Amino acid sequence: MSVPDIAGIAAIVVSHDSEETLDDCLQRLRNADGVAEIRVIDNDSSDASLEIVQRHAVADPRLRFIANPDNPGFAVACNQGAADSSVPWLAFVNPDCLVEVDTLARLREHAEQEAPALVGADLVDEDGVRDVAARRHDPDFAAMLRSPAAARLGVEIDTTASLQHVDAVSGALMLLPRWLFERVGGFDVGYRLHAEDLDLCRRVRDVGARVAVANEVRVVHVRGVSSRSRPVFVEWHKHRGLWRYFGKFEAPRRSGFVRAAVFAMIWVRFPFAALRALLRTQR
User: Fold this and answer.
1) Which among 28, 71, 164, 169 would be 20 to 30 A from 65, CA to CA?
2) Per the confidence metrics, is the pTM higher than 0.85?
């Protein structure tokens, strides 16, 4: 379906050792309504990811790619893809997200109706189990010190609402107007991996825009394709990202004691989380 550039969507995919799902992801994006540009930023893949991307680029002039010689992180690569595109809408799509033909166009419709807005989808795994990261509230680290239950950021789906307002959606799939992305300065490149989506959603809300999930737009998210080979690396940057998020948004209003306690809570948890992640990959 041909869509004029005034409504065009740039689909931005960051790949790293993503060959397992990348071919399917890109083919679906090429078939998707509203997609005017596809930008793939490859962060130093050692598998067949680049060969897959090159094959799609030859077949479809809408697709261009940047092959980074190292891995500067997800946020940096997303910003690279946004800067290399020009149409009014930006969709950040993980290589393990498998969109349907109408997915991005429907998200754009919701974002237009709620303007300005950043919109995510109802993410499920291959068995139909919902991803709790699709609907989240902001972390409250002081509350986590009082109760471990506060660490659970997931928000239940509101089955009565086609569009559910939340604090944050998953960076695995999010769509927003380019002008809004540029107004907040894009992704914070101080994050290497994880929590950059929480950060972006918070800054979007801080400028008066909305963050929401289109509950009736379901997308399969095959989680963890790129991270299975390096579980300890992923956990390290996940915890580092949480500490950065706390430092930006919560630490300035907390006492020195609370800041020290949060630091200890995050980094004491890291070795246990890393061990669990490592054991999961060996099953």
Assistant:
1) 169
2) yes
